[in-house]
Amino acid sequence: MLRDVTISRAIIESYFHDLLSNLELDVAIVGAGPSGMVAAYYLAKGGAKVAIFEKKLSIGGGIWGGAMGFNKIVVQEDAREILDEFGIRYEEFEKGYYVADAIEVASTIASKTVKAGVKIFNMIEVEDLVVKDGKVSGIVINWTPVHMTGLHVDPLTVESKFVVDSTGHGAQVTQYLLKRGLIKNIPGEGPMWADQGEKLTVENTKEVFPGLYVTGMAANAVSGAPRMGPIFGGMFLSGRKAAKEILSKLKV
Ligand code: 48F
């Protein structure tokens, strides 16, 4: 006979084992959108200990709905090799424009990322950063429902050598530094311009404060670069670039 309490014990022991073993990380990624998951995948492949914290119940960020709910995304030539790396199928619409099924993209990236060794904690919101001696050295986490209900409950912290702000358009994690006067300005993203937005999201992927990287739309929001809509190559390339740079710093 199945015991209800054994089911509970299995979940609690397994979950808290994972949580405890991810309290000290090489890299804490905030946000399980395309840029965050791709960064986590390459970091894990490179041997880093990495976990993603996602405030929503579902992961995937802005991938699922394609554009206007038409669940297809477009990827340009530069990023095609990342679709190949993940084994995502696509069709060439016109030279240099590849179209993929948004559901396959989100589910495949998520699956490969988890199987590469990344633990994804959903329903956990990063509400602040740990900053010591002028360097970001961890994240402050709380259950999303605590924030939603406005309950007065103190958070926990996770220590990490690097934090990656992959929170998308709001650059929510970098905003915590702005609020404290530790960085001067976050101009926010500019109006739509796919070509420039895609180039600049990769260029703007960088360490914006010691220990804090930005990727994807957060990178453009922090630098005032354009949004780009339903083309995703820049998100993937940004995640890969952040992973490469962080891996080389971790080795140093
Ligand atoms: O927005 P999102 O998909 O970020 P991205 O990787 O990709 C942007 C594209 O989806 C699209 C686009 C493509 O051209 O413009 O918008 O830059 O994913 C961001 C994730 O971060 C989570 C949020 O729920 C989403 O899943 N997130 C935001 N703030 C927090 C957070 C937070 N404070 N703590 C944890 N997760």
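^ 48F complex. Residues 30-36, 53-56, 61-63, 125-126, 166-168, 172, 216-218, 227-229, 231-232, 235 surround 48F (CB under 6 Å). The mean pLDDT is 98.
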